[in-house]
Specification:
CATH class of the largest domain: Alpha Beta
Structural class: alpha+beta
CATH topology of the largest domain: Ubiquitin-like (UB roll)
Largest sheet: 2 strands, antiparallel
Shape: elongated
Number of strands: 6
Radius of gyration: 20 Å
Length: 107
């Protein structure tokens, strides 16, 4: 009962945030190592990104730098640069590109 309430709260929160999500699925396993396991509903939430930027992180290798609602360009660029061991100069270029794209008027 408590799990169902938590699931409903999660779905309600997702709707309030304007998040799209996949249909809830239920997984049922009758036996795991001889122990009964009750069904657990899974909710897959997919948040649409505001911006995806392809960044060349190595010769012949590109990675997506993704910005979601509520994230700052500085934070995203810093985390991306740390994850791929990029220089401060590369981090600043990514930050500037993200800010430029986020501030560009939409048609």
């Amino acid at each position: 009962m408590a799990q169902a309430r938590k699931d409903r709260e999660c779905v309600d929160l997702a709707r309030k945030m304007g998040v799209t999500f996949a249909k809830a699925q239920s997984i049922s396993r009758s036996n795991v190592r001889g122990k009964a396991v009750r069904s657990t509903p899974l909710i897959k939430i997919r948040i649409e990104p505001l911006l995806q930027l392809e960044v060349k992180v190595a010769e012949g290798r590109e990675e997506k730098c993704v910005v979601y609602e509520g994230q700052a360009a500085d934070e995203v660029a810093r985390n991306f640069a740390q994850r791929f061991s990029l220089s401060a100069e590369a981090r600043d270029k990514i930050r500037d590109a993200l800010k430029s794209e986020l501030n560009r008027p939409t048609a």
